[in-house]
Amino acid sequence: MNVQNNHDIPKKVLSWLLEPSNPSVRYRTLIELLNYSPNDSETQLTYNEILNWEPVLKIKNAMHPDGYWQVKVENGKTVGKDTEYRTFNTTHWVLGYLAEYGLTRKEEFINRASNRYLDLQKKDGDFWQHLSCLYGLNLHTFSKLGFASDPRIQKTIDLVASSIRHDNGYLCDLHKGKKHKGEPVKSCFRGTLKVLFGLAEFPSIWTHPSVKALVDYFLNRELLFKRSKPNELVVKNAGALVFPFTYREGLLENLYPLLKMGYGSHPKFMRAWELFESKKLPDGKFPLEWNPMNMYLNPGNKGEGNKWITFYAYFLYKLKNSENL
Fold first, then answer.
1. Which of 53, 55, 36 is nearest to 44 (CA)?
2. Segment 133-148, tens digit of pLDDT
3. Single pTM value for the model
4. Which of 17, 120, 211, 266 would suit a FRET pair with 75, their CA atoms being 20 to 30 Å apart?
């Protein structure tokens, strides 16, 4: 294969990302880092390898015939048929993993499961208890799966635009109405981050006032630091390299949307970017620092150079470099 290298990717790292042992990282590296066409024979071959890869076959075999994934929780209860925000193995999570694997709705089983889930959407565009982390992640997932223009997704975008709070963030029903020292509780950093992460896939709304206010929410705290204590992270994992993306926060999810939206040169972006660059290992790879325990996407061992994290890291470099062209 004749690879046109992006000069920011060390050759040994690129060869590692392109190894056949992880066809999803290989496929996404070809398309998203090296700009190969999905119609290129090499990318088509790699895509077919994803479909026959053990982790994907495991997901496909575990799907209920009606198009959902369920799991037993406490007291013998089974969840997954509806939109409950439970475990890391129910339907909305599994669809997110499939999107990360590089698959889309063109696969019949994904299209069936996706449409079934989207049909469970509430009238206002919500999915469950107005969890912004859930509908933010769903915006990201369903955009990647090929549903960006679906009217159901537009309903969720409208909900996001209309429900931003006084402090430019978001808060779910579980905490609505609560007060701290007589004042309404602040917005949830994690949930607000997921909304930003989801909206990064919809450039047509980046100029909307609510999106600009959301961006300010993060720039005003240099993305992930407390405003009252600037040397402390807002929440523990905000500065960690996390994969796959779940309700927990992570550094990639802070950097990715703001880079896509063109804020990579903003002065208040720089401290988080320096933290990110400090994590690069001597061999040019980036480590996995936290991962949710799940049955369907095991990214590897914590503390080691990780293909998924490294792929995303060099995609961030690509986004940042594109601002300077």
1. 36
2. 999 999 999 999 999 9
3. 0.95
4. 120
- By CB atoms closer than 10 A (0-12, 13-18, 19+), residue 249 is buried
* Helix (H) or strand (E) segment spanning residue 41: helix 41-51
Q: What is the DSSP letter of 301?
A: -
Residue whose tokens read 């339907």: 91
Q: Which residue has the higher pLDDT, 6 or 126?
A: 126
- Selection from 140, 142, 135, 177 nearest residue 159 by Cα: 135
Burial group, residue 54, by CB count within 10 angstroms (0-12, 13-18, 19+) = exposed
Residue 5 pLDDT more than 60?
A: no
Contact residues for 171 (Cβ-Cβ < 8 A; gap 6+) = 132, 165, 185, 186, 187, 188, 191
Query: Residues with Cβ < 8 Å from 81, sequence gap 6 or more?
Result: 64, 68, 70, 91
Contact 107, 51 (CB under 8 A): yes
Q: Closest Cα partner for 233 from 223, 219, 246?
A: 223
Facing residues of 133 across strands?
Answer: none
Distance CA 99, CA 160 (A): 22
Sign of CA dihedral 219, 258, 90, 88: negative
